[in-house]
Specification:
The chain has two domains: 30 residues; 83 residues, Immunoglobulin-like. The protein is 15% helix and 36% strand. It contains two helices and seven strands. A four-stranded antiparallel beta sheet has the order 1-2-7-6, with no helix packed on it. Strands 3-4-5 form a three-stranded antiparallel beta sheet, with no helix packed on it. It is elongated.
Amino acid sequence: MTLVKFNDGKKVNDYSTFNELFDSFFNDSFVNDKLISRVPAVNISESEGHYHIELAAPGLKKEDFKISIDRDVLTISTQKEEKEENRKINRKEYSFSSFVRSFNLPDLIDHSNIEATYVDGILKIDIAKKEEAKVMSREIAVK
């Protein structure tokens, strides 16, 4: 539980009091947990020939994911019913039973060369670049 200190006996204007209230609301662990845990965390990286997306979604199966691409928007979603169990939850920090994440992709991706794997709670998506998007490197002589 977070204790919120509002005024401390000092006279302040209404604007700073509002800011303190707003900051304390979003710094509260209960609110933060609810805002952050609704979608899985993502790492996005790039190599010479591919873009790589890694999405952390523990407790799911590969059949739970729906991955689609429409033009240059990649969408990852899942819709899974949570089973009611005979137990009392004291704290629940993650629940990825249903979510949608969308990513805008660059124009120069190879739509026919996209692969996805799900291993150990991590969904990995490799998106190949078209040849013209691959960075050519060479050494330039100084004259």
